[in-house]
Design brief:
The protein is an all-alpha fold and 362 residues long. It has one domain (3-360): ABC transporter involved in vitamin B12 uptake, BtuC, CATH 1.10.3470.10. It contains 16 helices and no strands. It has helices at residues 11-34, 42-52, 61-95, 108-122, 129-150, 159-182, 186-197, 205-224, 226-233, 236-241, 246-268, 274-286, 290-314, 323-341, 343-346, 353-357.
């Protein structure tokens, strides 16, 4: 991505874009709560939310139940999952220096799927949401741990070795998942399919706590690492020459990414293309400087996930589509457009020298 071709690289335009994305996020959140198989007027939405926040009282038990118990948690999970997955994709693409980087590349998503499918198939009919989320989280971290160990070489994690380890372990874990599906009952297969494609429809206030805390904490770490990521994209030698402890940075970022992805996949399932596509959209808008691109990715991911969820639950209402169907339907054509329509995508992207030099700026 050519830094000069991005339309929002100047400080004024970048700040305007961020403000616009914040406003769009708020508008999408209100629409996400109001729109569904049963519509709720926006004044009622505002009244119910304000009442639960201690400002006034809400009238109408049905509206209160729909808004506060169902749709507000769902919307928050969509924001957390979308923003978190977009950030993890941006970090992985920088660490492995590969435009195809996303959480599945380091084994996190396949591992979570194996854990969840194992519980669904082997746990019988007594499987609860908590046990499913716990198994998915453990599977994600365990698989990443294996990839992490295999990708290690001479005190570092070379991008090529890390990618090869992630792809190999991902296929191995996926083969175990497919085997479990062959011995599952029809009802279990249906549940496995819906979970593997992702959904935020099962969100409740209890399931939001862990992923929200993990993603918020991880986002703070990632956003603070923007200058270091600029240097890392330029190569390990350049980063080391600027005083960055490359192995330590790689370990920290990969652990943060694994925790964020595992916590999201554990409650929302395997949602594809968000971590892959959204960072590229952010680069098209603000350029390759991670200090800006990460912020744009966070906001764009939240908006994208809320819009995808709205489509998933309204296009065949009252039935719902898995949200991964919508993200793939949007993400795949966009990626093909990048591949065929933008020559800059086919060239190896480099952060401009001015951007890399900025890593030493306060």
């Amino acid at each position: 991505m050519n830094e000069r071709s991005a339309p929002f690289t100047s400080v004024t335009r970048y700040r305007g874009l961020v403000l616009a994305l914040v406003l769009v996020t708020f508008v999408c959140a209100v629409a996400s709560v109001a729109i569904g198989s049963v519509g709720v007027p926006i004044p009622d939405v505002i009244r119910v939310v304000a009442a639960h926040l201690g400002f006034g009282t809400a009238d109408g038990a049905s509206a209160d139940q729909i808004v506060w118990s169902v749709r507000v948690p769902r919307t928050i999970l969509a924001i957390v999952a979308g923003g978190g997955l977009a950030l993890t994709g941006a970090v992985i693409q920088a660490v492995v220096r590969n435009p195809l980087g996303d959480p599945s590349l380091i084994g996190v998503t396949p591992g979570a799927s194996l854990g969840a499918v194992a519980v669904i198939v082997l746990g019988g009919g007594s499987v609860g949401t908590g046990s499913l989320a716990g198994a998915a989280f453990v599977g994600a971290l365990a698989t990443f741990g294996v990839v992490f160990l295999l990708g290690h070489s001479d005190g570092r994690w070379p991008p090529t070795r890390l990618i090869l380890a992630g792809v190999a372990i991902g296929y191995l874990v996926s083969s175990m998942t497919y085997f479990l599906q062959t011995i599952a009952t029809p009802n279990q297969v249906q549940r496995v399919l819906f979970w593997s494609l992702g959904s935020v429809g099962g969100a409740d206030w209890g399931s939001l706590v862990i992923p929200t805390l993990v993603v918020v904490a991880g986002a703070v770490v990632v956003l603070g690492s923007g200058p270091a990521l600029n240097a890392l994209v330029g190569g390990d030698d350049l980063a080391a020459s600027l005083g960055i402890d490359v192995p330590r940075l790689q370990v920290m970022l990969l652990l943060v990414v694994a925790a964020m992805t595992g916590s999201i996949v554990a409650v929302a399932g395997g949602i594809a293309f968000v971590g892959l596509v959204v960072p590229h959209v952010a680069r098209l808008l603000v350029g390759a400087d991670h200090r800006r691109m990460l912020v744009a990715s966070l906001l764009l991911g939240a908006v994208f996930m809320m819009m995808a969820d709205l489509v998933a639950r309204t296009v065949r209402a009252p039935a719902e589509l898995p949200i991964g169907v919508v993200t793939a339907a949007v993400g795949a054509p966009f990626f093909l457009w990048l591949l065929t329509g933008r020559r800059s995508f086919r060239r190896r992207r480099r952060v401009p020298a001015s951007t890399v030099a900025a890593v030493t700026a306060p």
